[in-house]
Write a structure and sequence with these properties.
The complex is a heterotrimer of chains A (298), B (155) and C (762). Chain A is of the alpha+beta class. Chain A has 11 helices and 15 strands. Chain A folds into 3 domains: 8-53, Uridine Diphospho-n-acetylenolpyruvylglucosamine Reductase, domain 2; 63-172, 2-Layer Sandwich (Uridine Diphospho-n-acetylenolpyruvylglucosamine Reductase, domain 3), CATH 3.30.465; 179-296, CO dehydrogenase flavoprotein, C-terminal domain (Enolase-like, domain 1), CATH 3.30.390. Chain A has a 5-stranded antiparallel β-sheet with strand order 4-5-10-6-7. In chain A, strands 14-13-12-11-15 form a 5-stranded mixed β-sheet, sandwiched between helices. Chain A is globular, with a radius of gyration of 19 Å. In chain A, 58% of the residues are buried. Chain C has 3 domains: 13-22 and 452-596, Aldehyde oxidase/xanthine dehydrogenase, molybdopterin binding domain (Aldehyde Oxidoreductase, domain 4, 2-Layer Sandwich), CATH 3.30.365.10; 33-137, Aldehyde Oxidoreductase, domain 3 (Alpha-Beta Complex); 290-397 and 412-451 and 602-755, Aldehyde Oxidoreductase, domain 4 (2-Layer Sandwich). In chain C, 26% of the residues lie in helices and 25% in strands. The chains are: A alpha+beta (298), B alpha+beta (155), C alpha+beta (762).
Chain lengths: 298, 155, 762
């Protein structure tokens, strides 16, 4: 089915893109990979004109280390995140989460910046980046900006991006020494699906006592946007990772969830699944079970 | 608004005009009359529109034709010269083709898998093809066909 | 029996063009000057149309036609019931369906305006400019509600479309004899076919002024429907059947045909009409949701003595094929068992929900869910093994089904059950919270149409001068190997290599008519027609060869493209020479034959007694599932299917049907459901209506029994629909075992299994 006609602007630089967005009437939309935007256009949910694509903007698809941090350009594809040796080596949680997004063909087009800008609560990437304390970089009419990801998602498909701004990249600090991380994508319908909920976790244990020094837990699909669950994290700090402590953290996470009901499941079921999968993921991380990051339908 | 696009199509250079809102699927089917790539859903879910862009599978229904500039596009019509690709041969021989609508997309996704992983397990095959839906076959003979080709390459 | 070609696994002739992605589907052709069609549909499920204003759309440059009901010469699609079936039970209403709505819309998606424009983009803009004033009306969205006297009427006269009844023995007496009675109500949802190719057609007017349509359709006879609505002679409308990208019954009713024909006829230009996926979800007929209330009684030793059932199906806004689907449910209601006392009341009801019509198994899958759920429930109540309870009651040769029809061949049911179950092997141990459950479902599904339809199929087989053969038979190919089977049959009979036989075209006017590719009838009907024609050609060739080889006709064999004297292979002559000689001497080298299915009178609609179908396919599926006790997710780990297929024509095709049917059945059981709110679909997209992917279907294991008992060529039975019938029931039974709760409502989504709402009385 054809898309409604639109004019296409293909800027070569970030400045040109921001310019084009500023000059365009209110109907303009920025397109990165198109995997979220094109279906919406086709279904008539939005009628953008012009469409401003970013695929020609130089320097937006980098993956490199800058002062020990990982710098990712907004146009890095999800597939590249999954495969890049730098990401797999130092930020494997992100690589594994990226590998769970949709299907291979979608991953080859979907972009990091697009995923963040779309701000879907059921994003597989957002919880991983939340656990990694990433910073989102953007450029807009007022210049460049960097925002901690915890402040980036503000609501249901809403971000803190100012009008006329675009995501240009993500900076991910080094992962604490000895951290183990994992991501669970829970698909109760077809095993190939959006996640009903997703749980990402990063845990650092004291090498001597085995107690938890730091726990970072983030949820997808469990609130209007992807969230960190600070209270759950707090219950683990300083505690041994006993079954009891893990259960308490899972209960807390379920309590912090603020899920919606939709066709995939009710809020109540989502909340219960947060409890189950947070518990299972933490236990798997504790026990060194690699299955913690597998496609989780069971 | 029209664009002029220059890219490589099935190993030949191609220069063609198309409206800016055309997707790769519109271009391939309607402008270039290559009908092997199918329009199954328009949402990027069914996989019947899968083509290879710089060797990697993408959803032709989701990617704007404008993205093709300077890149290498391969459709089902172009994966083998005059002969049949081993995957095409295997799919036909093993009975992995029933209505055939999902077949081009399946073969291209499988081809991309085997380029990257020449010795996949059945599980690997299922993961790689998870984005290609089939309503006729139940996937059993499709998985068999891909494994047959993989084994043939090894042995 | 061992054959040269029949029964082997052979690549299908159509596979080679399909793997190359050649343009063979209806949407792959473009014609010069072709217009693009677009249908404007009602967004409301129940509304009056006060005004339709098409002027602005018509004025848009590039628009060739904007048509409403006023432009349709005869704006109605009729459905007729033959013989006694037409006897209306009290209050039953058989309403016609308009091609384009007049002053009322009765379901979301009902077509209102048809547009043809130079480009799809112009057509979309024209659609935006159409003004339709709707006044919403109260609607009814539940069939049980629709039966209440005060319910809003979908059509004048009431909401009952049709009732059928089955009466055998004395139900009161039966229950008095019962030591144990189990009672459950089963519920199934609207299901979508989700063929990968949406509804598609292209049309033009040919040199003789014949309106020609090339459509993805299971029924070439729709040329008559197009002729009727346009008030054209039937001879002036031709329907060419493209290879379908899947049908499953969803392309059995008229889909694009009439709208396309209308646009072509009015514009006098070629037109292409393709439904978008969203439009396909909203616009085409679904599988009927059923409420099945079953009460089954058995003796202490497990013998069935009484079965009472009330079946209620939601027909949606129009009749389509609902009465027939309901009829199949009536006939299959008891399952493949001996039951002496049977009382079934079945009703199909109008609502303002989407139209429900034909879908693979055609009403047999819903009853299987119920009757096999009941058998497991009985086994539990009796403390008996679920296999033993079934074995005790399976139909045998000579037994009568509930309609009084005696089975003339051995159903092989026990063998299908025991072999499928045995293949599952030793039970696997589960580890909490995962629970493993195994379940099975036995089934019977008719193949071939109802006996009173006097079904027939014709085919032509002819030899070319080089000894190759051509088959002409208008059997639409839905992807199940319909065309390939015909080639295999001819190759077998004439002793030719399979690739020396070509089946050309499927066309209402060019090829002898073979009827619909529905009702699992095509192998039976066109297969037998081709068999007869091939045998006739064989006789001519053999007679000619006998002359040439100076031998008796009965001593001539045909194999590998030659005729030779049996036992003396050197006394041979190539088939090309035989054909040339025959042509030269005026002997025929072609034959046109017609196969008529045995027929019987319509059954009694008040008692259901009579012979409804010529034969049935019997089969059992055994399933193993893992249910996660904490999430409710079901994973299907094993699925074994065992069928008596009579004789497989092409082994890999037969397996493929079973594998595909099982996968489709898994979707029905676990994840598929059209979600409606007041008749409005909430999930008309693949993102929200999930069908099984490679990750959801196990390696289906098939066991074929070839009894030779079928009525098709070489003793073949049909498998297309039977392949799917028992799957949801088997999965439901397996999940019930895993969870320890009797599941009664599909789909068994994780949330429903966990919170118990998939079982009754939760």
């Amino acid at each position: 089915m054809r898309l409604r006609a639109f004019d296409l602007i293909q800027p070569d630089t970030v400045a040109d893109a921001v310019d084009a967005l500023a000059r365009a009437s209110t109907g303009a939309r920025v397109m990165a990979g198109g995997t979220a935007l094109v279906p919406m256009i086709r279904l008539g949910l939005i009628r953008p004109d012009p469409v401003i694509t970013l695929h020609r903007v130089s320097g937006l698809a980098e993956i490199k280390i800058e002062e020990s941090a990982l710098r990712l350009g907004a146009m890095v594809t999800v597939a590249d995140l999954e495969r890049a040796p730098l990401v797999r080596g130092g930020w494997s949680l992100l690589a594994r989460a990226a590998g769970r997004v949709a299907t291979p063909a979608i991953r080859n087009s979907a972009t990091l910046g697009g995923n963040l800008g779309y701000a879907e609560a059921a994003s597989d990437i957002a919880p991983a980046l939340l656990c990694l304390d990433a910073t989102i970089e953007s450029a807009g009419p007022a210049g460049e900006r960097a925002l901690p990801i915890a402040r980036f998602f503000t609501g249901f498909y809403e971000t803190a991006l100012e009008p006329g701004a675009i995501v240009t990249g993500v900076r991910v600090p080094p992962v604490p020494n000895g951290a183990v991380g994992g991501y669970v994508k829970f698909c109760p319908r077809s095993a190939e699906d959006k996640p009903l909920i997703g749980v990402a976790a990063l845990v650092v244990r004291d090498p001597d006592s085995g107690r938890c020094r730091e726990a970072r837990i983030a949820l997808a699909g469990a609130a209007p946007m992807a969230i960190r669950v600070g209270r759950a994290e707090g219950t683990l700090r300083g505690e041994p990772l006993s079954d009891g402590a893990i259960r308490a953290a899972a209960d807390a996470a379920a309590g912090e969830a603020d899920p919606l009901s939709d066709l995939m499941g009710t809020a109540r079921y989502r909340r219960e699944m947060v409890r189950v999968w947070t518990r299972r993921l933490l236990a798997a991380l504790r026990d060194g079970d690699p299955a913690s990051s597998s496609r989780a339908t069971r | 608004m029209n664009l002029t696009l220059e890219f490589t199509l099935n190993d030949r250079s191609c220069r063609v005009d198309a409206p800016a809102h055309f997707t790769v699927l519109d271009l391939v089917r309607d402008t270039l009359a290559l009908t092997g790539t199918k329009d199954g859903c328009g949402e990027g879910v069914c996989g019947a529109c899968t083509v290879l862009l710089d060797g990697r599978p993408i959803r032709a229904c989701l990617v704007l034709a404008a993205r093709l500039g300077g890149r290498r596009l391969v459709t089902i019509e172009g994966i083998a010269g005059g002969e049949l690709d081993p995957l095409q041969e295997a799919f036909a021989r093993v009975g992995a083709v029933q209505c055939g609508f999902c077949t081009p997309g399946m073969i291209l996704s499988a081809r991309a898998l085997l380029e990257e992983e020449p010795a996949p397990s059945a599980e690997d095959v299922r993961e790689a093809l998870a984005g290609n839906l089939c309503r006729c076959t139940g996937y059993v003979k499709i998985v068999e066909a891909v494994l047959v080709v993989a084994q043939g390459r090894r042995g | 029996m061992s054959y040269r070609v029949i029964g082997k696994s052979l690549p299908r002739p159509d596979a080679w063009e399909k793997v190359r992605g050649r343009p063979i589907y209806a949407g792959d052709l473009a014609l010069s000057g072709m217009l693009h069609g677009l249908i404007v549909r009602s967004p409301y499920a129940s509304a009056r149309i006060a005004r339709i204003d098409t002027r602005a759309a018509l004025a848009l440059p590039g628009v060739a036609a904007v048509l409403t009901h006023a432009d349709v010469p005869r704006n109605e699609l009729r459905m007729e019931l033959p013989g006694r079936m037409a006897e209306a039970t009290a209050g039953a209403v058989l309403a016609t369906q308009p091609v384009l709505a007049v002053d009322r819309v009765r379901f979301q998606g009902e077509p209102v305006v048809a547009i043809a424009a130079e480009t799809p983009e112009v057509a979309s803009r024209a659609a935006d400019l159409i003004e339709v004033d709707y006044e919403e009306l109260p609607g009814v969205y539940d069939p049980i509600e629709a039966l209440r006297p005060a319910a809003p009427e979908v059509h004048e006269g009431g909401n009952v479309l049709r009732r059928w009844h089955l009466r055998k023995g004395d139900i009161g007496e039966g229950f008095r004899k019962a030591d144990v009675v189990v009672e459950h109500t089963y519920r199934t949802p609207f299901i979508d076919h989700v063929y990968l190719e949406t509804e598609t057609g292209i049309g033009w007017i040919d040199a003789e002024g014949v309106l020609t349509l090339r459509v993805s359709t299971q029924v070439l006879e729709h040329f008559r429907d197009v002729a009727e609505i346009l008030q054209l002679p039937h001879s002036r409308v031709r329907l060419e059947g493209a290879y379908l990208g899947g049908g499953f019954g969803g392309k059995e009713d008229v889909t694009v045909e009439c709208l396309l024909g209308l646009l072509v006829w009015k514009t006098r230009r070629p037109v292409r009409l393709v439904f978008s996926r969203e439009e396909s979800f909203i616009g085409h007929g679904k599988r009927h949701p059923y409420v099945l209330r079953y009460r089954t009684g058995a003796t202490r030793s497990g013998e069935l003595v009484a079965l009472q059932a009330e079946l209620c199906s939601d027909s949606g806004a129009y009749a389509a094929l609902s009465p027939w689907v309901l009829f199949y449910s009536l006939v299959t209601a008891t399952g493949p068992y001996r039951v002496p006392n049977v009382h079934v009341d079945a009703v199909t009801v109008y609502t303002n929900n989407p139209i429900a019509s034909a879908y693979r198994t055609f009403g047999s899958i819903q009853t299987c869910i119920a009757y096999e759920g009941q058998m497991d429930a009985l086994a539990d109540a009796l403390g008996m093994d679920p296999l033993e309870v079934r074995a005790r009651n399976f139909l045998r040769k000579g037994d009568t089904i509930a309609t009084g029809q005696a089975l003339e061949t051995e159903p092989m049911l026990e063998e299908t059950m025991r072999r499928a179950w045995a293949q599952l092997g030793s039970p696997r141990a589960a580890r909490e919270p995962v629970r493993i459950g195994r379940g099975l479902a036995a089934s019977f599904t008719p193949y071939g149409r109802m006996c009173w339809t006097h079904d027939s199929a014709s085919a032509w087989v002819g030899m070319e001068l080089d000894g190759t053969a051509v088959v002409r038979c208008a059997a639409p190919d839905v992807g199940g190997g319909q065309t390939a089977s015909l080639c295999s049959i001819v190759a077998e009979i004439l002793g030719l290599p399979v690739d020396h036989v070509v089946a050309v075209g499927r066309d209402s006017h060019f090829t002898p008519r073979a009827g619909t590719t529905t009702a699992t009838r095509q192998l039976f009907m066109s297969g037998n027609a081709v068999l007869a024609a091939a045998r006739e050609v064989r006789r001519h060739l053999v007679d000619q060869a006998a002359e040439m080889l100076e031998a008796a006709a009965e001593d001539i064999e045909l194999a590998e493209g030659r005729a030779f004297v049996r036992g003396v292979p050197v006394r041979a002559v190539g088939l090309a020479a035989v054909v040339k000689a025959a042509s030269g001497s005026g002997r025929p080298t072609q034959a046109l034959d017609k196969y008529d299915a045995p027929s019987a009178p319509t059954i009694d609609p008040l008692t259901g007694q009579g012979k409804p179908f010529n034969d049935y396919t019997f089969g059992t599926q055994a399933v193993e599932v893992e249910v996660d006790g904490e999430t409710g997710v079901t994973r299907t780990t094993r699925l074994v299917a065992c069928y008596d297929v009579g004789q497989a024509i092409n082994r890999q095709s037969t397996e493929g049907q079973i594998e595909g049917g099982a996968a489709q059945g898994l979707g029905h059981a676990l994840m598929e459901e059209v979600v409606l709110e007041q008749g409005i679909s909430k999930n008309p997209h693949l993102l929200d209506y999930r069908i099984p992917s490679t990750l959801d279907v196990p390696m289906v294991e098939t066991i074929l029994i070839e009894s030779g008992h079928g009525l098709g060529p070489f003793g073949a039975k049909g498998i297309g629909e039977p392949a799917m019938t028992p799957t949801p029931a088997a999965v439901m039974n397996a999940v019930s075992r895993a969870t320890g709760r009797r599941m009664t409502e599909l789909p068994l989504t994780a949330e429903r299994v966990l919170n118990g709402s998939a079982s009754e009385g939760a």
